[in-house]
Design goal:
38% helix
Length: 136
Amino acid sequence: MSYQTEQKEALTRFLSENAERQFTVHALTEELRKEAEIGESTVYRLMKVLVEEGRVRRFMVDASRRVYYQYVGGGACVSHLHLKCTSCGRLFHLDRSVSEFMQKQILATSRFMLDENKTMLFGTCHRCSGGTPVHA
């Protein structure tokens, strides 16, 4: 096992154990340094690979230029849309049938095809809205 593979495994393990949270590369590096020696440039390279593999989502919050990453698992995680709470940062997986329905409606009404690998809907989750339904 190469050193790079051990670093990738440590990063992947940390992200999967903290899948409900999002991190900047700097924050990830600080967290990982508690367990292993890893540099920020290595984390940048590994995050690029994990994003390409579909195991991690890359996104920006609001108008900030800060890039965040969050573990989504990969594989089946690319076959549906995601919801992101702008208050707590939690990521929710939208049911596949609901995702398909929404994408079909958007295509039918606007002739616009969403890229579900890059589409994330932002709003407020049930917990952050005080447990009451949020209506538009």
